[in-house]
C-alpha cells in the first residue's frame, strides 16, 4: 500500500524527511510547504539534490490544504523558537482538515500525558473533527530516552536504575536559533535563571515527557523529578557553523533530569552538548547515546551513528527518519492523539537493492 504524504518544512530535519519520503517506494510525495520565497516554486527533488519529482514547493497554506494526502510530516521549528503556539495552530488546522500528522516540532507531544491540558484538548478536538491521528516523534525525546529503555526493559528480571546519556557535537549544526536556545555563546549572567524554563509543567520542557513515559510504561511510580545543569565556559574563540563562540561564553552544556522514587534515583537522563572537546572532556566527547541498566541482568548499550548528508549532524537525520518511518502506523491507526506506546511496533528504512556483479 502506498501513502500520499505532504512534507512541511525543509530545515535541518525537513531536508532529511523530504529525501526519505521521495526515495521510499511505499510513500508518494504530493505536497511541500516551505517558508521562504527563495524555495517557493522549486521542484522538491531540486531542494535535496534528487531528480525532479513534479511536486513544487509552496508557501501557500491554502494550496497545501487543497491537496489529497494521507499524512503530513510536520518538521517545522516549534519548541526551539520558544513558543509552540504557531505549531499547535498549524497542526490543529491540518488535523481538522482530515490529514494525519506526525510532528517533531512539539517535542513534549511524544507522550500526550506530558502536554498541558489545554494543548492536549486542542489536539484531541482537532483529531475528532477531522477523524485524523496525531503523533509526536523524534530522537530525544522520541526514542533514545523513552522507547529505547522501554524496549530493553523486556529483557530485564529486575531494574534498579536506568541511566542514559546523550553526547552531541554541535560544531556543524547550522541553526543559530537553536544554538542560542541551548545557551551557546551566552555568558553565565545572560543565562540567569535559564534552568527554570526546563522545570515542571512548562511546555518548553520537552525532556520531562521521556521520564513520564518510561515511568508509566515500567510502572516505576516516580515521586518527583529534579533538574540539574552545568556549563563549560571557553577562554578561547571557537568557530562553529553558526558563527563564533566568544571567550567568556558557554561552549559546553550539561544537564540532567532525575526521576526519584522512594528516596532514590531510578531514572537519570543526561545531555552533553558541546562545541569543543577541550572543555570538561570527562563529561563525554564525540556523538553517541549510552544506556546503563542496573539490575538483573545488568546492561550497557551504546548507540553511535553517522551520516554524510546535509550538515552531517546525526541528530537531524534520525529525528526525520523516526517521523517518516511512523507514517504507515499512524495512517492505519484509529483517530486521536497517540504516543508510540499506542501503536504497534514498526520498523523502518528501505533495504537497498543488491549490487549487480559484472558479467565475466
- Largest sheet properties: 7 strands, parallel
**What is the succession of H and E elements?**
EHEHEHEHEHEHEHHHEEEEEEEHHE
In the predicted model, the low-confidence regions spanning at least 5 consecutive residues are 355-360
**What is the strand content?**
25-35%
Overall mean pLDDT: 90
Strand line-up in the sheet with most strands: 3-2-1-4-5-6-15
Query: What is the straight-line distance between the termini?
Result: 39 Å
Q: Portion of residues in helices?
A: 25-40%
The oligomeric state is single chain
Q: Count of DSSP helices?
A: 11
What is the C-alpha radius of gyration, as a whole number of Å?
Answer: 21 Å
Please provide the count of β strands. 15
Instruction: Estimate the global geometry from the Cα principal axes.
Output: globular
Count of separate structural domains:
2
Q: Which structural class do you get from the secondary structure elements?
A: alpha/beta
Care to describe what's here?
This protein is α/β, with parallel strands linked by helices. The protein folds into two domains: 3-137 and 326-342, Rossmann fold, CATH 3.40.50.720; 147-312, no CATH class. It contains eleven helices and 15 strands. It has helices at residues 12-23, 44-47, 61-65, 85-96, 117-130, 147-152, 176-182, 188-191, 208-217, 314-325, 327-332; strands at residues 3-8, 27-33, 57-58, 71-74, 100-103, 133-136, 158-169, 224-233, 238-240, 243-245, 250-261, 264-274, 288-296, 299-303, 336-338. The protein has a seven-stranded parallel beta sheet with strand order 3-2-1-4-5-6-15, with helices on both faces. Strand 2, helix 2 (44-47) and strand 3 form a beta-alpha-beta unit. The longest helix is centred in the middle third of the chain and has 14 residues, at 117-130. Mean pLDDT is 90; it is low at 355-360.
